[in-house]
């Protein structure tokens, strides 16, 4: 009799616990359903609508940027090559139109060749930089990226740019680099650290090439002017050397 009474109490306790759990689940489901109904019936207001990023609220510009991002995800290398060619073409056209000389298509072809050759390595570099130096401190990560970019990429790229310009123009490569690279590195400190920091902080990775390309139009225009000034300086020095050699030759023949 005692055993049956104990068994009856245990079964009754289990049934009560089961009923209690069922009631809790019903209460939770009814609350979630009522909350969903309230959310569905809620009138959209500025307080309950999530704010879109700035670049997603620019209308046609946003659509163009999204189309560019889709093409870049499908064919990143081809997209980067075309972006670099457009950037260098626009920069060369601005630099030549700002001068007093006639348009030189050879200079444009030279710029397109230099930009096309550097497009893929530059893309790979910034892709690697975006995935590297990611520390727990966001400020440390950003500062390291900017420092490494200025320390490694800027001198190498500027030396390549001015060296190729001199090589394709038939000038002395080392002398041309000495006249242009130090000045370009110093002036790059006024622009590219801020651009790099802003890009890695606010610009999504698929739009960074577009953002950098827009800034690069102005920067490449400056490099074109600097390269042209160095070419003119080299031509003047060469002319002075030729004149000195001619005068010395005439003096020796007169004697």
Automatic annotation (TrEMBL):
Sorted alphabetically, which keywords does the UniProt record give? Membrane, Transmembrane, Transmembrane helix
Keyword Transmembrane helix listed = yes
What transmembrane ranges does the database entry give? none
Q: Where is this region: Disordered?
A: 22-45
Membrane topology type, per the record?
Answer: Multi-pass membrane protein
Q: Does the keyword Transmembrane apply?
A: yes
| Record's subcellular location | Membrane
Annotated InterPro entries: Mpv17_PMP22
Which cellular components does GO assign to this protein?
Answer: membrane; mitochondrion
Query: Record's superkingdom?
Result: Eukaryota
Family that this chain belongs to: Belongs to the peroxisomal membrane protein PXMP2/4 family.
PANTHER family attached here?
Answer: MEMBRANE PROTEIN, MPV17_PMP22 FAMILY, PUTATIVE (AFU_ORTHOLOGUE AFUA_1G13840)-RELATED (PTHR11266:SF113), PEROXISOMAL MEMBRANE PROTEIN 2, PXMP2 MPV17 (PTHR11266)
- UniProt-recorded name of the protein: MPV17
Organism annotation: Cercophora scortea
User: Taxonomic classification, please?
Assistant: Eukaryota, Fungi, Dikarya, Ascomycota, Pezizomycotina
